[in-house]
Design goal:
There is one protein chain. The protein is an alpha+beta fold and 95 residues long. It has four helices and four strands, in the order βαβαββαα. It has helices at residues 18-33, 45-48, 73-87, 91-94; strands at residues 6-10, 37-41, 53-58, 61-67.
C-alpha cells in the first residue's frame, strides 16, 4: 500500500482546495519517482501540467499527445493550454 505499482486517479483534485490539490499532486510526483505508474483523468490543465505524458482524447480516440521532457512545469502548462485551445474549435463550432 505504501509503494503501489499503479495508481488510477479519476479527477483526483476535482473536490479539493488549492493547497490540498498541490499536496496530492506532489505526492503523485513522489510516487512516480519511486516507480509507481500514475494514470490520471483530468480536465484541468494545471493538474495535467504535473504529468510527464498527456494523451488528449476526443470521441473515444487519442487525438494527440504531449511529453514534458526537460521543460519546466510552467512551460508545459502553456503547451497544454495551446492544445486545449486548438481542441476547442472556433466560434462557428458553437453557434
Amino acid at each position: 500500500i505504501t509503494r503501489p505499482s499503479l495508481v488510477l486517479a479519476d479527477e483526483p483534485t476535482g473536490a479539493l482546495d488549492s493547497k490540498s490539490s498541490g499536496q496530492l499532486l506532489e505526492t503523485f510526483e513522489l510516487l512516480n519517482k519511486m516507480g509507481s505508474t500514475i494514470v490520471m483523468v483530468t480536465h484541468d490543465a494545471f493538474t495535467a501540467s504535473y504529468c510527464r505524458r498527456i494523451l488528449f482524447l476526443q470521441d473515444g480516440a487519442v487525438l494527440t499527445q504531449l511529453e514534458r521532457g526537460g521543460q519546466s512545469r510552467r512551460a508545459f502548462f502553456q503547451q497544454i493550454i495551446g492544445v486545449v485551445t486548438r481542441l476547442g474549435g472556433d466560434q462557428s463550432d458553437v453557434l
